[in-house]
């Protein structure tokens, strides 16, 4: 097993042009110190399948909490927060925020990797939710104040 791990680590290090243990410097953690940071992180993670061109809409995003939240809208969910320091946020507000963020086409991502055309997004995995799709709140028939 050690030989297999070493072989894979050497290949990965050569591919990434780095040295050291396989997990070293590949992953980082960040403390989420307030509700804003938590919501930002949640939206980032929920948009990963969209940005990776693995899903076209929030409800198509397999294995994400946003899909789970969308599917369980009819059931009672715990509120986002009720404390003095908590953001006054509804589930529908979160879904709307992630939907709107997912529709942003990042020109800087294309320039950084030398892509100039929007249709090349699939090749570069800089995906987004198409403006041709209806808004998530409309599709889900959600009231923005709930």
Give structural attributes.
single chain; 146 residues; mainly alpha; 2 domains; 0% strand
Strand content: under 5%
**Strand pairing plus helix content: what structural class?**
mainly alpha
What integer is the average pLDDT?
75
Are there runs of 5+ residues with pLDDT below 50, and where? 110-115
Q: Termini separation (Å)?
A: 53 Å
Output the helix-strand order. Answer: HHHHHHHH
The number of helical segments is 8
> Strand count, sense and closure of the main sheet?
none
What gross morphology would you assign? Answer: elongated
Please provide the count of β strands.
Answer: 0
| Cα Rg | 19 Å
Total tally of structural domains: 2
| Helix content bin | 40-55%
> What assembly state would you assign to the polypeptide chains in this entry?
single chain
Can you tell me about this structure?
This protein has 146 residues and is mainly α. The chain folds into 2 domains: 1-28; 31-139, no CATH class. 44% of the residues lie in helices and 0% in strands. It has 8 helices and no strands. It has helices at residues 2-16, 35-46, 48-51, 65-71, 91-102, 107-112, 121-124, 136-139. Helix 2 (35-46) packs across helix 5. The longest helix has 15 residues, at 2-16.
């Amino acid at each position: 097993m050690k030989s297999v791990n070493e072989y894979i680590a050497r290949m990965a290090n050569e591919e990434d042009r780095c040295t050291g243990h396989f997990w070293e410097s590949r992953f980082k953690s960040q403390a989420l110190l307030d509700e804003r940071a938590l919501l930002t992180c949640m939206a980032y993670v929920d948009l990963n399948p969209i940005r990776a061109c693995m899903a076209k809409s929030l409800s198509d995003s397999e294995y994400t909490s946003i899909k789970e939240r969308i599917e369980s809208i009819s059931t009672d969910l715990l509120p986002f927060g009720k404390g003095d320091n908590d953001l006054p946020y509804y589930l529908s507000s979160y879904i709307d925020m992630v939907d709107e963020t997912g529709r942003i086409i990042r020109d800087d991502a294309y320039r950084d990797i030398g892509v100039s055309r929007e249709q090349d997004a699939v090749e570069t995995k800089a995906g987004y939710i198409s403006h041709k799709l209806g808004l998530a709140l409309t599709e889900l028939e959600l009231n923005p104040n709930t």
